[in-house]
Amino acid sequence: MTPVPPLPAQATWHDTGTSVFCHAVRAGGRWWVLRLNHFPEHPLYTLFIDAQVVGDIDDVPDGWRLRPGAALPVLTASERAEVLALMAGLGPYGAEAGAPCAGDWCTCDLLTDEYAARLNTPPADPASP
Predict the structure, then answer these.
(1) CB count, 10 Å around CB of 33?
(2) Would 100 disulfide with which of 25, 62, 77, 92, CB 3.0-4.6 Å?
(3) Helix ranges, 33-94 (H)
(4) 82-119 CB burial, b ≥16 within 10 A, e <16
């Protein structure tokens, strides 16, 4: 795996409201997006920067300030739409390499763009759909 780049100091992860691309942050004008994979069959996360795969991550770096269960700010509706459009087609593990996972033991085939766009939690911001 490519070494994970350090997250810029002022960058803050946001909840996307989706269980596929669960966290995103705009850093240096680029979208960093974490795809939550079907663990333990695949690594826990895959990191993308502007829809380009950086690599797989099982342990989030401490400097990212991203803790399990921690409340995160929520993306606005327009930011969420931008992230989902950017990540279109990248829901299944391996899609970034042109070989989406299709194993009988995995649910990656369910991770369509429509599935990724479904809200998994009500938005914290009433302005978000």
Answers:
(1) 25
(2) 92
(3) 77-86
(4) ebbeebeebbbbbbbeeebbeeeebebeebeeeebbee
Tell me if residue 55 falls in helix, strand or coil. Answer: strand
Predicted model pTM? 0.85
CA atoms within 13 A on the CB side of 114: 2
Contact in structure between 44 and 57 (CB atoms under 8 Å):
yes
Tokens read off for 29: 């004008």
Q: Is the peptide bond before 5 cis (omega within 30 degrees of 0)?
A: no
